[in-house]
Design goal:
Blueprint lengths: L6 H6 L7 H16 L3 H15 L10 E2 L2 H7 L4 E4 L4 H14 L7 E2 L2 E8 L2 E2 L4 E2 L4 E4 L4 E6 L10 E4 L1 E6 L7 E5 L4 E2 L11 E3 L2 H7 L12 E10 L3 E3 L2 E9 L5 E7 L7 H4 L5 E11 L6 E5 L5 E3 L5 E3 L12 E2 L8 H5 L12 E2 L1 E14 L4 E4 L3 E4 L17 E10 L9 E3 L5 E6 L16 H9 L3 H18 L13 H18 L9 H6 L9 E2 L6 E2 L3 H15 L2 H7 L8 H9 E7 L6 E2 L1 E7 L5 E4 L4 E7 L15 E4 L3 E10 L13 E13 L3 E5 L5 H17 L8 H8 L15 H6 L2 E11 L3 E5 L12 E19 L13 H5 L7 E7 L13 E8 L6 H5 L16 E3 L5 E7 H4 L13 H5 L7 E15 L7 H8 L8 E8 L8 E6 L14 E11 L6 E4 L5 E6 L17 E2 L15 E19 L6 E2 L2 E2 ...
Helix pairs in contact: 2-3, 16-17
Family: Belongs to the CTC1 family.
Main location: nucleus
GO cellular component, one term: CST complex
Length: 1255
């Protein structure tokens, strides 16, 4: 790297051929310019430079002087300079660092010479500030610095720094600090000081003076000599900066505390070294108000001197003071780490609270985990926590590769189940920087003021396990929050942003931290003989919640979903899969879902992300890692329409995380479900569902008018370069994008020139009367497309709206100006201001799809536009696009940059609402035979969701286009939804949706309440059954999500059906849903058992398929059973159709007996039994048959089968095939040898759902 160029640097760099006097003048001039010294000091500095580097002026030609200001402004990467080191010494130093951290870049060596003054004063705006830090200062500026060793005589002297490292601050090039590796060389020696012999007290005698009797009060000041055994960090509390010195006797453990708070004496902290002997002069005794403890304090005349036996004289006290209390050093603090780790296995026993151990340890920082939180990694195995004491030198020097020595730190083993052991430093601990790092890492400054981590730590007096978990939680929160504009990191958030973090974490801490917890007493923690601090005792914390990134959450949910709903698991939950052929089996496995609540994860899951709407027409909750589609609804059933929530940071604790699973498989039968080779493709679709009332809004972005301008500029530039052709004219779009520039032109809109200058946008209110779903449509090219032919398929949706009032000028986005009063008269008038039109949403405007709902009022805003006629200019005639006019005269393509603001539901804005064009029908009305409508809208509860074979017929061009644009499932499937008004209701309506629409439909799960709009009502020709189909103009909205536990709802087989009599069953299709009856099995009309080929459904005999033209090579079959029984309860009788496992229950066969029956049928292929009804004429004979068939026939007539049962059923919507449809039929009865002929009503079948033994 070339040394940074500067005027001083050029002067110091020798020129080829220059004479020695010229070189000397250049160096002297440069030294005077940097140091601001006189000629004598500059000459001394030059001689010191040559003597210290052992180089003459010619050998110094490769070096250059660097000033502090040039170092700050020009050096953007970490660098080092070693004036006295050889290349081998530098390589050895780097090699030692690489042995610890092999993946770190080494420092780059430069040939720069640094000369300056060491000072403890920082230049402020008005006065000099002293905070305990040291600075290197020259004539151009100052830099903070940290040294491994410091002498008081260096302070204020001109020094040459032969070996130093410069570390710039991360993210900025104008700040950093210096690491002084070697002792600086004093340019000019200071005056020699003559010291007199000092009378001193040793700590044993001085400790007695802390509780001195009146006879010792005349001792105003005293000198104390002792060995430094402990040194607290510099603390800044209540606008006071101070630290404590602990001196102990040379021959005993007795020690005394000395309180240092004078600004001129804070620099002593850099001089003091553990184990060295010192003399402190002019000390006084004082009592600390906060704790009542007595300590020694320094006075203005106090000095710190090195201890020398020849220059001190011991003083003594009378024996009357013997026995006064002293402060002693705990011998337990000297335990080594190796012995403490041997107790790790014993510590694994479960106890309510554990006690940490105080140890000493020396190691190397291998990673900065979180500088603001005071967390570092030591030797790749321990976490060092410095948060419980204020950071030494603002964290300067604590970089990966630096060596530290710890004394009296707390060893906390496994504070969290998944975290390493932690070495926690309290206020009694001592942290000493022993060596600097050779790695090239930037400076991560620690903020002592406004540090959110430390604020929460002190506010709640957190234990170490809770603090470690809190830091992890806030780091995750930071990842969510910093995606918002202008936010960088948690310690530098704005007041509003920090309030959001506090709003999130404080309620959690209020639950975890008990009320009335003892506050931290710093004086007791530092001075008390019996040590008390937050690190002394701890409990292993089970985290109460987690907020992982959405990418990890989706992966976790997807894994749990496939595990819970694997094909083999589905077989266990649905035993009837054993009796279906391959086609039906794969169809049932094709679409499934798993739902997880917050409690489904351990620990409990909390969602944290900001809400946005995507250009694919769905809401999404996202963070930096992933965006997850979401569905929001209200508890009272209202659709979610709040557009102001976009961009807000949300916290959701009650939710459902739904994973829809799409499986393409070719399983031959249920026997191969455990094999993965038959799974061809697996896809998932995640979605989060939650209620708006369960949302906590942590952050709401401020209104930014400039954002609307930026959005409009982006969309206009995108439109100019976009090759896609839409129905909106390019010239009109250009008029919108240039509206902001037209403000200063002469063609500004006529009304109110002054208001046009102030206004930033034009808006207009509209009422939605009908909304269609997302579909792919073809549009004809417009005149702005250059005459190119062809169509362009685009995803879009349409909404029929009514203008409410006239356009208005607004200053800010979301402002409605002079909003008109909405009265019944205003809604009913048919003026031009309320003209009906069709809004067309394409491309980026699709993001408004989730917010638009019928009967809701919205404000459409065009940013940076002052033309009140812009909406009329945007309108087109239907002939321009491939749109069905549907009696509409105009349609308006919504520009990409337009904004939408939800005003409210029209029923909430006015007292009375007139009858609208659309109407919600009840399911009972739709099922009624007298209903005549074709397009219907209704709401209902999804009772059942299945896939059926797609109807093979002619599809509309729109449906064909939808299939061509891709699908989640194969194209030969159709979704069948059974919809009921409420749980357990008798009315059930079938809704059919082609799977081509599925990618844009969300939340269609059993138990969900859905609003269906504009579905086509149909009636089957053969059986007159009513059903509805989803068409291109249809739309669905989720009013309430399915509950996580479906057992709370009565859906399908899980319901508790109503118990009734058979006489109440009517042939009306809508008359009854699922019901239960206590009845008696009269007889078995027919019983058929056969094995079918799982592939072609032909008869399967002797282990192979019987089909020969074309031959089927399948060797897999499934057993199917079907029985028709007659039941009666004394009021009526019905034929009931039973299948598979239901036949087993009707015949009262055990599982082993049922297997024997199936194995026999497998050899013969099929068995069929036909029985006459119980009132058949006597004397009828039966054909001879094999023994097994005779056994089944006898079983069907035995009291084992003809018994009372509890039957769960639903009516069959198809009439019985035994009789012709009509008003009635003739039946023959026999009684006591007499024959009777009677007219009976048409018989309807019942479909068996379950058979239970009557109790």
């Amino acid at each position: 790297m070339d040394p940074p160029g500067s005027a001083a640097g050029e002067a110091g760099r020798g020129l080829p051929g220059a004479s020695l006097p010229a070189l000397e003048r250049q160096w002297l001039q440069a030294l005077r310019g940097i140091s601001g010294s006189d000629e004598e000091a500059a000459g001394a500095a030059l001689r010191c430079l040559m003597r210290g580097s052992q180089k003459d002026l010619l050998q110094l030609q490769g070096y250059s002087l660097i000033s502090v200001s040039d170092l700050q402004s020009q050096q953007r990467m970490p660098c080092c300079s070693h004036l006295t080191w050889s290349s081998d010494e530098f390589r050895e130093w780097v090699r030692q660092g690489e042995g610890v951290l092999s993946n770190q870049r080494r420092l780059q060596r430069t040939h720069l010479i640094l000369v300056g003054y060491l000072t403890d004063e920082r230049l402020g705006e008005k006065e000099k500030l002293v905070d305990g830090s040291l600075y290197v200062r020259d004539n151009t500026g100052e830099l903070p610095c940290t040294l491994l060793r410091f002498k008081l005589e260096w302070l204020g002297c001109l020094l040459l720094f032969p070996s130093w490292i410069y570390i710039p601050k991360a993210g900025k090039s104008t700040a950093g600090y210096l690491e002084i590796m070697q002792d600086p060389i004093q340019v000019m020696p200071g005056p020699e000081k003559t010291l007199d012999i000092l009378p001193v007290f040793y700590p044993r005698q001085a400790a007695q003076l802390l509780n001195a009797r009146p006879q010792y009060k005349e001792i105003a000041k005293l000198n104390v000599a002792g060995e430094l055994c402990r040194l607290s960090t510099i603390l800044y509390i209540h606008q006071n900066t101070f630290f404590f010195i602990f001196l102990k006797c040379f021959s005993s453990a007795t020690c005394i505390p000395v309180f240092v708070q004078r600004s001129s004496q804070l620099v002593w902290h850099h001089v003091l070294q553990l184990g060295q002997r010192y003399v402190l002069t002019a000390l006084k005794t004082a009592c600390l108000k906060a704790s009542g403890l007595r300590v020694f304090i320094t006075s203005s005349s106090s000095h710190l001197l090195p201890y020398c036996t020849e220059r001190v004289k011991e003083q003594s006290l009378d024996s009357t003071s013997e026995g006064s209390p002293t402060v002693s050093v705990s011998t337990k603090a000297c335990e080594q780490l190796s012995s403490s780790l041997e107790l790790e296995e014993e510590a694994k026993t479960v106890v309510p609270a554990r006690k940490s151990q105080m140890i000493s340890y020396a190691g190397t920082i291998t990673q900065v985990l979180n500088a603001q939180a005071g967390l570092y990694e030591l030797d790749n195995k321990f976490t060092l926590c410095l948060a419980y004491q204020q950071m030494l030198n603002y964290g300067r020097g604590l970089r990966p590769g630096a060596g530290v020595e710890l004394q009296d730190v707390h060893l906390v083993q496994k504070p969290l189940a998944a975290s390493p052991s932690v070495l926690g430093a309290c206020l009694r601990s001592v942290v000493v920087l022993k060596s600097f790092s050779p790695c090239s890492t930037l400076y991560q400054p620690v903020a002592l003021f406004g540090n959110f981590y430390i604020q929460l730590l002190l506010r709640f007096n957190l234990s170490l396990p809770l603090y470690i978990w809190l830091v992890s939680l806030l780091e995750t929160f930071e990842q969510r929050f910093c995606i918002l504009p202008h936010q960088q990191s948690l310690h530098c958030l704005t007041h509003q942003a920090q309030a959001a973090a506090e709003k999130f974490i404080v309620p959690i801490l209020n639950v975890l931290v008990p009320l009335g917890k003892e506050e931290r007493n710093i004086h007791q923690e530092i001075l008390a003989e019996e040590h008390h601090c937050p690190l002394q005792q701890y409990q292993i914390l089970e985290p109460p919640c987690q907020i992982p990134p959405f990418s990890l959450l989706s992966a976790m949910a997807e894994k749990k979903g496939w595990e819970s709903l694997s094909p083999l698991q589905q077989l266990n939950s649905a035993p009837e899969l054993c009796n279906v052929i391959a086609e039906e089996l794969n169809r049932r496995l094709a679409w499934s879902y798993s739902s997880f609540s917050a409690e489904s994860f351990q620990p409990r899951m909390v969602l944290l992300g900001w809400l946005d709407s995507s250009s694919s027409g769905s809401l999404k909750l996202q963070d930096r890692s992933k965006a997850v589609p979401c569905i929001i609804f209200h508890k009272d059933g209202r659709p979610f329409a709040d557009t102001s929530l976009v961009g807000c940071l949300l916290q959701v604790e009650i939710f459902q995380f739904v994973i829809e699973q799409f499986l393409r498989s070719d399983f031959p039968s249920w026997q191969q479900l455990g094999s993965q080779e038959h799974i061809k493709e697996k896809k998932t679709r995640p979605c989060v569902q939650f209620c708006f009332e369960d949302v906590e809004i942590l952050y709401t972005p401020e209104k930014r008018a400039s954002e609307g301008r930026r959005v409009n500029e982006r969309t206009s530039s995108h439109a100019e370069g976009d090759g896609s052709k839409a129905a909106e004219p390019r010239s009109q779009e250009g008029r919108i994008s240039g509206a902001g520039r037209a403000e200063s032109g002469a063609s500004t809109a006529e009304p109110s020139q002054g208001s046009a200058v102030e206004a930033a946008c034009v808006s207009r209110l509209f009422l939605v009367t009908q909304k269609e779903g997302l579909v792919w449509r073809n549009y004809l090219p417009t005149s702005g497309d250059g005459g190119k032919g062809g169509r362009s398929a685009q995803l879009c949706f349409q909404a029929t709206v009514v203008w409410m009032g006239s356009p208005e000028l607004c200053k800010n986005l979301g402002e409605t100006g002079c909003r008109q009063e909405f009265t019944t008269f205003a809604l009913q008038e048919t003026s031009e201001a309320q003209q009906k039109l069709l809004l067309l949403f394409l491309r980026k405007s699709l993001r408004w799809f989730p917010f638009l709902h019928p009967d809701h009022l919205y404000q459409l805003t065009i940013p940076q536009c002052t033309d009140l006629g812009v909406f009329d200019q945007l309108c087109c005639s239907p002939a321009q696009g491939n749109l069905n006019p549907l009696r509409r005269s105009l349609f308006l393509p919504v520009p990409d940059g337009a904004l939408l603001h939800h005003v409210g539901c029209i029923s909430q804005l006015v007292s009375t609402v007139p009858q609208m064009d659309r109407k919600l029908f009840s399911i009972a009305e739709i099922l009624s035979s007298s209903f005549t409508g074709s397009l219907v809208s209704f709401s209902g509860l999804i009772v059942q969701r299945t896939l059926v074979q797609s109807y093979v017929g002619k599809k509309s061009p729109g449906e064909v286009l939808m299939q061509q644009m891709g699908n989640l499932l194969t194209r030969d499937y159709t979704v069948k939804l059974r919809v009921s008004p409420t749980a357990g209701a008798s009315e059930v309506l079938d809704v059919y949706i082609e799977t081509a629409f599925l990618p844009y439909l969300w939340g269609l799960l059993p138990g969900a309440r859905i609003l269906f709009q504009n579905l086509q009502r149909k009636v089957s020709i053969r059986f007159k059954n009513v059903y509805c189909t989803y068409i291109m103009s249809s739309c669905v909205s989720v009013l309430a999500a399915a509950p996580h536990d479906l057992s709370s709802l009565q859906l399908g087989a899980a319901s508790a059906p109503s118990v009734l009599h058979l006489s109440r069953i009517t042939p009306e299709p809508s008359g009854l849903g699922q019901a239960q009856v206590a009845c008696h099995v009269t007889c078995v009309l027919s019983l058929s058992l056969h094995w079918s080929c799982s592939l072609c459904n032909c008869i399967f005999t002797e282990g192979r398929c019987s089909r020969y033209n074309p031959p089927c090579l399948s060797r897999t079959g499934v057993c199917k059973a079907r029985a028709r029984i007659i039941v009666e309860d004394g009021t009526s009788e019905f034929v009931v159709v039973c299948k598979n496992q239901q036949v087993q229950k009707v015949l009262a066969l055990s599982a082993k007996e049922w297997d024997v029956v199936q194995n026999h049928v497998k050899n013969t292929g099929s068995i069929g039994i036909q029985h006459s009804e119980v009132n058949t004429a006597p004397g009828q004979t039966e054909e001879r048959e094999d023994l097994f068939t005779w056994y089944l026939r006898s079983l069907c007539r035995s009291p084992v089968v003809c018994r009372p049962v509890l039957l769960t059923f639903r009516p069959d919507r198809k009439p019985s095939g035994d009789h012709e449809a009509g008003l009635g039929q003739l039946r023959r009865f026999f009684s006591n040898g007499l024959e009777f002929l009677s007219q009976t009503r048409q018989r309807w079948n019942l479909i068996c759902l379950d058979v239970q033994e009557a109790t």
